[in-house]
């Protein structure tokens, strides 16, 4: 691998141009801080596209009935700009993924227990948004799919790796990773500021992004998406940026 251990923060990071928050390597997670992601101030008023119009096109599939929340889609944060962690550049953009053999790589370096559990819940063939984080303009740039389900993250045992964990044992590894493969670029870059504008509007009127984890648990580098959340965000690629 030309870029070992360079895709992830240590489990969680808000989108700020500053060093990542360090997560204690214990059985108790460090509580997430309620801090805003770096973004421009969202446009005043509600979502211009109107989620209600979008919802009408989806109700024929669901009958308009709410179902139990299940997660079949994901959002994976990765840093596209160079940043040294213990002397290693942790940069890994979607272009770096595309440059990998078969456009596939392992998603290593997650050191947050909730994010790890989300990794372990991923199933073969499920899709995820590739999200550029901790950079000048955070946002969604593409789509990847899970091509290998969770298995032990080898970087936890590598003393030269910035994500080495001396407390983890090979007979009972603490940390897991999955393999992901590039699917496609989104038709346009979908910035955090635009998603946030919809989130704020949906909080007021009950739209699909009202509880999106990108804003309720923003420091997690691995985040689940409901079908409604995934479909709505994906629909934004068809719209002209505001």
TrEMBL record:
Q: Where is the composition biased (Basic and acidic residues)?
A: 10-28, 56-66
**Compartment list:** Nucleus
Q: Name one Pfam family in it.
A: EVE
- Region annotated Disordered, chain positions: 1-66
The protein's matches in InterPro entries, at most eight in alphabetical order, are given as: 5hmC_binding, EVE_domain, PUA-like_sf, THYN1-like_EVE
What does this gene product do? Specifically binds 5-hydroxymethylcytosine (5hmC), suggesting that it acts as a specific reader of 5hmC.
Q: What is the protein's given name?
A: Thymocyte nuclear protein 1
Q: Which organism is it from?
A: Scopus umbretta
């Amino acid at each position: 691998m030309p870029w070992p251990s360079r895709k992830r923060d240590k489990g969680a990071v808000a989108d700020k141009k500053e060093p990542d928050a360090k997560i204690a390597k214990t059985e108790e997670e460090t509580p997430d801080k309620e801090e805003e992601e770096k973004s421009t101030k969202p446009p005043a008023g509600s979502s211009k596209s109107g989620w209600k119009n979008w919802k009408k096109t989806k109700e024929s599939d669901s009958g308009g009935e709410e179902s139990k929340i299940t997660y079949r889609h994901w959002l994976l944060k990765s840093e596209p700009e160079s940043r040294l962690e213990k002397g290693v550049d942790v940069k890994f953009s979607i272009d770096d993924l595309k440059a990998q053999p078969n456009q596939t790589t392992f998603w290593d370096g997650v050191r947050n227990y909730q994010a790890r559990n989300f990794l372990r819940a991923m199933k073969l063939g499920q899709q995820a948004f590739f999200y550029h984080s901790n950079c000048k303009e955070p946002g969604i740039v593409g789509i990847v799919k899970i091509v290998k389900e969770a298995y032990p993250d080898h970087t936890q045992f590598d003393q030269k790796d910035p994500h080495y964990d001396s407390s983890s044992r090979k007979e009972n590894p603490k940390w897991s990773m999955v393999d992901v493969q590039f699917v496609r670029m989104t038709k346009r870059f979908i910035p955090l500021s635009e998603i946030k504008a919809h989130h704020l509007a949906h909080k007021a009127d009950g739209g699909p992004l009202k509880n999106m984890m990108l804003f309720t648990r923003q420091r997690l580098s691995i985040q689940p998406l409901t079908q409604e959340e995934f479909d709505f965000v994906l629909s934004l690629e068809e719209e002209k940026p505001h």
